[in-house]
Amino acid sequence: ESYFSQHLLLRGRKVLITAGGTRERLDPVRYLGNDSSGKMGFALAEAAVQMGAEVTLIAAASSLPVPAGVHLVRVESAQEMYGQVMQHFDQTDYVFKAAAVADYRPVVREMKKRKKGSERWVIELERTTDILETIGKQKQHQFVVGFAAETEALEHYAMDKLRRKNCDLVVANDVSQEGAGFNSDTNIVSIYGEEGCVLSLPMMSKLEVARQLLKLAMIRKGDQG
Ligand code: CTP
Ligand code: CA
């Protein structure tokens, strides 16, 4: 194979990636967030651009620089991310849902900064829409990859998410392991398909994980490049 065919395997393909941690507002100055750094999703965006793809990155909170050549859509909440994913979903070939999406949001969002007063503040939360589950139900030609960050029973939860959300692959990592955490530059992942674990990778940079994952996705989709 020539240099170019190896490096531009995803030429003409549209890749949609979500990254970062969503924020659910309590008031104009406060929110509920999570520890996602966005590193895995941004690495995927960078790797996909290098492979010649047209990349849309829907990014919630993350302070990382945006890789050159990526079409960036900034969002804050799970609901905004949901809206943007649905807008782009029809035209995409691959979806990678690396974002850490809030499972719950405050029922009430106050429009003015809440003043200190009472001894207790009880916050009521309601479920957000599960974006991956929604696109899993609607998918046609799209190849859909979910992510699962777990602290126990990796295989069990990964397979459960794969089936429940109708994903083509689930990328699972044990976030309690050294070198696989939320803000780490490296990751240790196991990738699951309908038949079980299809690839276990040793510790490597998130960019290298991204490259391996993109190639695996192409093979599983039957995409000849
Ligand atoms: N996800 C999503 N929308 C949500 C919650 C999660 O699209 N509202 C996606 C994530 O982006 C990820 C996958 O679903 O690709 C798995 O997320 P995870 O939090 O591990 O799974 P949950 O189904 O939320 O289960 P739990 O948090 O209880 O483990
Ligand atoms: Ca969750």
Explain what you see.
It comes from Marinicrinis lubricantis. This is Coenzyme A biosynthesis bifunctional protein CoaBC. In the N-terminal section; belongs to the HFCD (homo-oligomeric flavin containing Cys decarboxylase) superfamily. In the C-terminal section; belongs to the PPC synthetase family. Pathway: Cofactor biosynthesis; coenzyme A biosynthesis; CoA from (R)-pantothenate: step 2/5; Cofactor biosynthesis; coenzyme A biosynthesis; CoA from (R)-pantothenate: step 3/5. By secondary structure, the protein is an alpha/beta fold. The protein contains 6 helices and 14 strands. It has an 8-stranded mixed β-sheet, sandwiched between helices. Strands 2-3 form a two-stranded antiparallel sheet. Strands 7-8 form a two-stranded antiparallel sheet. α2 packs across α6 (206-221). It is globular. The N and C termini lie close together (12 Å). The mean pLDDT is 95. Bound molecules: cytidine-5'-triphosphate and calcium ion.
List keywords for this structure.
225 residues; single chain; binds calcium ion; two-stranded antiparallel sheet; eight-stranded mixed beta sheet; alpha/beta
Bin the helical content: 25-40%
Distance between the termini: 12 Å
Mean pLDDT, rounded to whole units?
95
* Count of β-strands: 14
User: What's the number of helices?
Assistant: 6
Strand order of the largest sheet: 5-4-1-6-9-10-12-13
Using the CA coordinates, give the radius of gyration.
18 Å
Bound small molecules, which ones? Answer: cytidine-5'-triphosphate, calcium ion
Largest sheet: 8 strands, mixed
Gross morphology is: globular
State the low-pLDDT regions, or none. none
SSE arrangement, N to C: HEEEHEEHEEEHEHEEEEEH
Briefly note the structural class of the backbone. Answer: alpha/beta
Percent strand: 25-35%
GO molecular function: phosphopantothenate--cysteine ligase activity; phosphopantothenoylcysteine decarboxylase activity
Domain DNA/pantothenate metabolism flavoprotein C-terminal: 10-216
Family: In the N-terminal section; belongs to the HFCD (homo-oligomeric flavin containing Cys decarboxylase) superfamily.
Binding site for CTP: 103, 113, 147, 161, 165
